[in-house]
Amino acid sequence: MVNINQDHWTTSRWEQEIRVRLGEATDGQAPLVNINADDTREFDAIFLGGGAGGRFGAAYLRAMGGRPLIIDRWPFLGGSCPHHACVPHHVFSDVAAQLMLERTFSGRLWFQDMQGKMVSIREIVEMFRRGRTGPHAFMNFQSKEQLDLEFVLGSRARIVDAHTLAVGGQIYHANNLVLSTGASPKPFTIDTQGMEGVFNYASLVDTLEYEPGPTVVVVGGGKTAIEYGCFFNATGRRTIIVSRHQPLTMINDAETRAYLLERMAEQGMEFWANAELTAIEGDGRVNAVAIRTISGGIKKVETDFVFLGLGERPNSQEAQETLGVEVDTNGAVKVDTRMQTSIPNVYAVGDLVGSPMEMFKARKGGMYAARNIMGEEAHYHFKKYPDFMHTHYEVCWLGLGEEQARERYRNVVVLKLPPDNPDGQSVALPAGDRMMLYVMMKPHLSGFQKLVIDGDTRRIVGAFHVGCGAKDGFQYLAPMVRNGLTVDELGEMDELFLNPSYFIQLCRLRAGSKVLRGM
């Protein structure tokens, strides 16, 4: 082991160490150990996994006066978010949004002519690959020097029992175990082992070493597939989305979903729904795929780049086999509202416990596990949450879609922008954050917003936004909606000129009506 407890590395020093270790095989490396030998207390908890759930849970437990230990196979804390998932995803979505702005106004105003121009995917991936050690280094520095967290990094641990882990030739005991081992990309039904040119979100940023050709095939119809598909499309490539079902079904409002699909199709994306990729052809490297279409026929598409956006499966196998924790049919570890598994003193958090596989859930789950370990009864209900997706737009949704609401309530009122216009002319609303060029020159691309309301109680039961600048608004809107926010209360708020503020304006236009009517 490499004992660094008495060392005080700068972020630059951490970055150097991480770069070296990432360039080597992770198995067999001597772990980086930061344990305070002067602290003789038993560990209150070992957090197996130092991603969002483990790091934030350990920090919270430490803040409450406890003693946590984090063990992670990577030489850095932060988990998959800065390495494979959130950060590259946001890099690619920013690139997609900028490129679509350039393409939409190609050759007009100050915009360059993008007609027929294909830009590099590899260059963006390599830029991210070089830059990702910066966030890694910061989280290691912050965790050690500012949060006083103890950890063992850079070597894979083995679960011995509910209180014991073995790593780097050492045994570590704790009163409790918090499993935070995350999830991995779901495997494809076709064996792609050893086939170059087939990627998922992790292998794309780790292994892409060539420039993809003019056609990309994306498998899947969920968030990962659509978001990455938008990036590939924005680079100027023909992008075919192959999904067994209709795409974007996670957006539970038909009108919002239709707006998005129409805009994506207008930007050149091809959606082959109710279809299946049946074969990947090539001698060691993909050169074509076979796709069974909705009609039942087989179409061959020449391509050297296939992206598998099939979602994720929790990394629960070792915990099942060693500890016997209960899991659901998708392999997610079952927990109660205290984040406790079926095994006493064993907790689980983050992607390991299933949907939603989002950062906020991992961080809060770690916090709630810590609170319960430290003797405070705390319950976390993470099923009702706002969701989001990055296409060429930012997309956010919360609560019930219009169709769901009409099944539940007798008097549903809908407020939306743009309004239904009898002459069919595009209306430049909503007009807001980073949408103003679209408003002035391509109004039908300026976005879409919708509030779904129970007209009898005046409570807002659903909210949907397509545009830019809504994510922050939705994270505050969500708890208010859960607590019964009404049209009148939302109309009383003060708005700034951002897209989410249109919800306030719409409500204010109707709040004085004793009988609500739609808009």
What can you tell me about this protein's structure?
The longest helix has 19 residues, at 86-104. The radius of gyration is 25 Å and the shape is globular. Strand 6 (158-161) and strand 7 form a beta hairpin. With 519 residues, the protein is of the alpha/beta class. It is built from 16 helices and 25 strands. Strands 1-2-5-4-3-9-20 form a 7-stranded mixed beta sheet, with helices on one face. The termini are far apart.
CATH class of the largest domain: Alpha Beta
Q: What is the fourth-level CATH superfamily of the largest domain?
A: FAD/NAD(P)-binding domain
Supply the helix-strand structural class. Answer: alpha/beta
Intertermini distance: 66 Å
Whole-number average pLDDT?
93
What oligomeric state do the depicted chains represent? Answer: single chain
How many individual domains?
3
**Strand order, largest beta sheet:** 1-2-5-4-3-9-20
What distinguishing features does this structure have?
single chain; 519 residues; alpha/beta; FAD/NAD(P)-binding domain; Enolase-like, domain 1; 3 domains; seven-stranded mixed beta sheet; five-stranded parallel beta sheet; 16 helices; 32% helix; 21% strand; FAD/NAD-linked_Rdtase_dimer_sf; FAD/NAD-bd_sf; flavoprotein; flavin adenine dinucleotide binding
